[in-house]
Design a protein that fits this description.
The chain has 334 residues and is α/β, with parallel strands linked by helices. It has helices spanning 2-35, 86-102, 120-130, 145-154, 175-186, 194-199, 212-218, 221-238, 254-261, 271-281, 303-322; strands at 50-53, 58-61, 71-79, 107-113, 134-138, 158-164, 203-207, 249-253, 286-290. A seven-stranded mixed β-sheet has the order 5-4-3-6-8-7-9, sandwiched between helices. A two-stranded antiparallel sheet has the order 1-2.
């Protein structure tokens, strides 16, 4: 009898705990819904609306993503305190793009300094003084990689838009692989038919998934646990079908960039996941293509805290969309 009574108390206690937990979750969801802005605030300082034209020796307004395209390709390079790693990346990038230019194709590179406190802006301006295809967007304060990429995208002129990390970890010539994938997806590419590409929808993701076995052998058990936990959360909560959401080498059509970046909320490391979540919402074709990638020293990611921040962002992305705190306008065209 005593055992039965004890078991009954435990069952009742367990039910009370579940009830309290459910009430706490409901209250938190209500608070989250009430306190969350449904649409992102696209704030931009006046200084961030202009770039210095070295040829004309004057500041000029950046164009808008909502203008018509005027060049084949825009390359957005988010950079935070990258005075050391930026030059090798830009050298490789510009060597490749200048070859395209000699073939009659146009491009621009927009270096977005994300509130850098070192000589990143000075280094980027040195390239802008040498190449009239390079523009520098200096953010007045640090927004995070997602915020830097978004403002670069909103300032671009290309039929297609690529964002590429400033560390140069991905071989830039692999852009050709992404363009081939774009051609396979749409039937044409940004070199042969830029007007058609600009009006179409596609997102092509560079991927390091094929290197997973090699990286597993190099990493500690703790870092492997964090990596697999993050991948599971991405798959379970947000995006399925893409093995590597975080590679900083992605190509978008102009129309897809319009649909995604005016809706994007997350401005830190997990922005790639929300970007792909929005793309899936709009049924934008998303493909993944293997690229050559090399670990470059000087990463800004602090293993434990950065992964923790990204894990929290993933849960909040899922929860805010599920309860309707974040909304997506049905603006996809064509």
């Amino acid at each position: 009898l005593l055992l039965d009574a004890a078991m009954g108390l435990i069952e009742n206690l367990f039910l009370y705990i579940l009830l309290i937990a459910a009430l706490v979750i409901i209250v938190l969801c209500i608070i989250l819904y009430i306190t969350t802005q449904p649409y992102p605030k696209l704030w931009r300082d006046e200084k961030e609306k202009v770039f210095f034209n070295h040829k004309r020796k004057e500041y000029q307004d950046f164009p808008s993503l909502y203008n018509d395209w005027s060049i084949n390709l825009s390359v957005i390079v988010p950079a935070y305190n990258e005075e050391e790693r930026l030059p090798p990346m830009l050298d490789e990038c510009l060597e490749y793009l200048e070859q395209l230019k000699r073939s009659g194709h146009s491009y621009e590179v927009i270096v977005v300094s994300d509130g850098s406190t070192d000589r990143t802006v000075e280094v980027a301006q040195r390239y802008a003084s040498k190449y009239d295809t390079v523009r520098v967007l200096a953010l007045v304060k640090n927004r995070g990689k997602g915020g830097a990429v978004r403002l670069g995208m909103l300032s671009s002129r290309g039929s297609a838009l690529l964002f590429a990390d400033a560390d140069g970890a991905t071989r830039f010539a692999d852009l050709e692989k992404l363009n081939d994938s774009l051609r396979n997806t749409l039937g044409f590419d940004y070199l042969s038919k830029p007007e058609e590409v600009a009006l179409s929808h596609a997102v092509i993701c560079g991927s390091r998934a094929h290197l997973e076995k090699e990286e597993t052998a190099k990493r500690s058990f703790f870092r492997l646990f964090l990596m697999h936990a993050f991948h599971f959360l991405v798959w379970f909560l947000c995006v399925r079908g893409i093995r590597d959401t975080q590679c900083g080498f992605k190509l978008l059509t102009r129309e897809s960039a319009r649909s995604i970046f005016q809706t994007l909320h997350v401005e830190r490391w997990a922005f790639d996941v929300e970007m792909l979540y929005i793309a899936k919402y709009f049924n934008i074709p998303v493909t993944e293509i293997a690229v050559n990638w090399t670990e470059i020293e000087g990463s800004k990611i602090v293993p434990f805290w950065s992964w923790l921040q990204m894990g929290k962002d993933l849960v909040l992305i899922w929860l805010r969309y599920k309860i309707g705190a974040w909304k997506i306008d049905n603006i996809k065209q064509n």
